Each structure stands twice: as structure tokens, then as C-alpha cells.
Amino acid sequence: MAAPHDHAVIFYDHDSEIVSAVAAYAHEGLQAGDGVLLVATPAHRSAISAALEDLGTDVAALVESGRLDLRDAQTVLDDFRPEGRLDLERFEDEMRTEVGAATGGGRRVRLFGEMVTLLWQEGDVGGAVHLETIWNDVIADHDVGLLCSYPTALLASAGLAEIRETCALHSEVLAPTTYGSTRPLPADPGEHVADLATAQRTEVFVPTTAAVTAARRFVGATLEHWELDHIAADALLVVSEMATNAVLHAGSPFRVFIHHSPGVLHLSVRDAQRGWFEQGRPTDAEVNGRGVSIVEAVAERWGCDAVSDGKVVWAEISTGV
User: Under DSSP, is residue 12 helix (H, G, I), strand (E, B) or coil?
Assistant: First the structure.
């Protein structure tokens, strides 16, 4: 399997994010003289075309000249599985031929594809991983940039190991723009303080440094909604250390789980790396590497449990409620 070349992936919360990102990506390539192939859903193709027009691109003229190629992701995907099974060998052969022809004469090509997204939506994450692997093999010997995307709504039902493998097949993982947002998260209307004895929430985050801030925001917004602001400082410190361990030491996506039972807040971070919560050995002058010590100092109880596909680091904080 070829290592990721120029193959980025964007995880997004809202369609407007991916439309804006792909339009900018395609516009930059067209301005530089690159060929651009966009294999997207009908709604995204239409929105991206409109965004390109807003950027001053004559979409119809570029399509006519062959510089811009717009294709339907579902049609292309189905063409490679005429009997319901994805023909990966045929896909690789045809894409090698097409990419080779498109880059002939030294022209660079930019690709965007949502076939892998459709496979995830169908529950065929394994098929998507195989397709991502083949793309790496196809583009390795050509001047090609490839951009893929996945809505974060799909992460909840995918395994952390599958998300981790998908991320590892890309040269760059781009987090949702909301990871860096300072706007408060909307409260879940299904949760009420009257139900606090059984209140719980969970969220999956992709392995980027921005995910630590996003995890803090998720926990902070949840505690505010549950009227547990008085323990927010301790809880945010604990989740920061556990999330940082997942990203920096495990190199893994992670799931944050928050549960409140009478008098106790239970926080846990599950990642896809077997082992233990890394204990750093910093010098007196070093700031980083103190995660275990911080969790030990703040939590009433804490631990690290091995699970079949990784580990769960957990901590309990007294709420007095």
C-alpha cells in the first residue's frame, strides 16, 4: 500500500462547510491552470458550482473546455459495482488510466470525491477504507491532489479503529470548523435538569489538536446545561488531559462520555490505542507531560481500562448534587 501522498480529508458538521472548502480548493486549482474533477452528490455539485460562479468562475465554459469535470458520485460508484459488489480491481485500473491521461503533458489535477462518503452512509466502512487505499496507490506516481470528506454525523456509528484507519490513509486531517468556534453549543432539548440523576452525553472527535478544545467546549456546554458549572474548572482540566493523551500519544480519534449520577460526574475518553494513559516524566521546568498527575490531583477516583479495540481513561468528580 502506498503511503498518503497529497490526499487530505475534511470532516464537517454542515453542508455549507464542505461546499465552501471544495469551491475554494477547485477555484485555486483552476486559477493555477490545474484540471479539476469533482465527483459529488447532486446537492453538493449544484452548490459548489454556484459558489464557483460567485468566485468569478465561468463553470459552463470550463466544463466545455474539459478543464472542469463534474460527475455524480452515486452514478460513478454504482458503475463500479454492477452486481452490488464493488469491483476494486476495475476501479484501480480505470482510475490509473484516467489519472495518467489527465496529468499528461505535466498538468496537475485536483480531485474531490464523495464515493467514500456514500459507502460510509451505507454502512460499508470497510469498502470506503479499501477505496481510500486504492486512491493512494493511484495518485502516488502522479501530480495529483485528492480531497475527501465525511460528515461528522457518521462518526457516531463508526468504530474508533475504523475512523483511525481512515485518518491514517490521508496526508492531512482537517477538523470541522466548529472545533475552533467560540460560540456556545446548543442545548439538547431532550435533556432537562429534572432528569439529572440519569443525564448522559457522548461525542466522537477526530484526531487533531483542535479536538482538545472542541472536547472542552462540549463538556463545558453540557455542564452549563446541567447546572453543574461549579465543577466545570476541574472537569475541563481532566478532559483536556485525557483528550490530549488520545491525540498526541495514541494518535487516535476519541469518544468523550459524560454521565451524572447522584453526587458524581463520570468523565471518560475512549481511544483506539491499546496500552495505558501515558505517564510523562517532565523536568521542573517543563509544562507538558503531567497529564496523569493532574488527573490524579483533581479526580476523586480515576483509572484506565483495556477494551477490545483500545482503552478507556476515566475519572470521577464529586458534584455535591
Answer: strand
Q: Which amino acid is at 35?
A: G
Q: How many CB atoms lie within 10 A of CB 102?
A: 21
Are residues 200 and 141 located together in one domain of the fold? no
* CATH number, domain with residue 217: 3.30.565.10
The pTM score is 0.87
For 103-145, write each residue's pLDDT tens digit.
Answer: 888 889 999 999 999 999 999 999 999 999 999 999 988 899 9
Listed in sequence order, the residues at least 6 apart from 140 whose beta carbon sits closer than 8 Å to its beta carbon are 2, 3, 5
Which grid cell sits at 197?
A: 440523576
Query: Phi first, then psi: what are they for 309, rounded to 5°?
Result: -120, 20
Distance CA 236, CA 297 (A): 14
Q: Are residues 138 and 194 in the same domain?
A: no
SS3 140: coil
Q: Are 279 and 295 in contact (CB under 8 A)?
A: no
